[in-house]
Amino acid sequence: MNNSPSVSSTAQRSPSTSAKLAAEVAGTFLLVFGLIATATFAATLDGGAAGVGTLGACLSLGFAVIIGAYAFGPISGGHFNPAVTLGLAAAGRFAWKDTVPYIIAQLVGGIVATSLIYLLALGGPDGFAKAAIDSGFVSNGFGDQSPGGFGLGSAVIIEIVFTAVFVYVILGVTHSRAAAGFAPIAIGLTLTLMLMILIPIDNGSVNPARSIATAIYGGPDWLAQVWVFIVFPIIGGLIAGFSSRLIFDRETSR
C-alpha cells in the first residue's frame, strides 16, 4: 500500500499561518516595489527609452497586483492592503482575529520595498537619492504635497470612495457566483484605472501600507499628512465591507 498523500489531499491542505503571512509580505513588497520603483527610476526619465510617464506607473501597479494575486493569492488570499483586509473582515469573508497579523505583514512588505528602492537610489547619479527624497519619495499628500494642488477635502473624499469601490470589486469578482480565474485581472485593471485619476489629486493611495512605506522616506512634511491615507482608506474599506451583504449576499424569494 502507498502511504504517501494523494494529490487531492495535498492540494486541499490549508497553508500554515506563517506561509500566509509570508505571502502577504511578498505580495505587498511586489505591489509597492513595482509602483514606487517605476515612479522613482523610470517615470521621469525625460526623453529616455525608459521614460514611461504617469501611465507607465499606473500600469506597473496593475501588473504587480495581477502577478501577486496569481502567485500569492492561493496562499493568503492576496490582500496586500490593510484596508482590504479590514473590508473583507467586515464583509464576513475573513476572520477578525487574523487582521492584525496580516496588517503587520503588509507593513513589513511595504517598508522592505521602499528601503530597497532607497538603497538603489543611493547608487544613482550624484544627487539622485536626494532629489527623490526632496520630492517626497512618491508619498501621498494634499495641499502643497498634492501633485495637482488639491486640498484635504478632495483627498478624503477620493480615498473613501475609491477604496470602497475597490473593496466592492474584490468582493464581487471573488464571489461564488463570479467567473472563476479572472479575479486578479479585474482587480489589477481596477487599480490601474483608479491610479490614473488619483495621481493628480493625492498621488494615489487606497492602501495604508503603501502610504506608510513611502512617507517614512519622504520626510516630516509627508509623515505629517500620512494619517489621511491611513484613516480614510480604512473607512472606505469598512463601509464597503459592512454594506456588501446588501449587494452580494441577498437572495430573492421565489
UniProtKB/TrEMBL annotation:
One GO MF term attached to the UniProt entry: water channel activity
Q: Where in the cell is it found?
A: Cell membrane
What SUPFAM superfamilies does UniProt report for this protein, alphabetically? Aquaporin-like (SSF81338)
Classification via PROSITE patterns: MIP
Transmembrane region positions?
21-43, 49-72, 102-121, 150-171, 178-201, 226-248
* The organism's place on the tree of life at top rank: Bacteria
Q: Which is a Pfam family this sequence falls into?
A: MIP
Q: Name one GO cellular component term.
A: plasma membrane
Q: Which UniProt keywords apply?
A: Cell membrane, Membrane, Transmembrane, Transmembrane helix, Transport
Lipid bilayer topology: Multi-pass membrane protein
> PANTHER family given for it?
AQUAPORIN TRANSPORTER (PTHR19139), MIP17260P (PTHR19139:SF199)
Task: Spell out the family assignment given in the record's similarity comment.
Answer: Belongs to the MIP/aquaporin (TC 1.A.8) family.
What name does the UniProt record give this protein?
Answer: Aquaporin Z
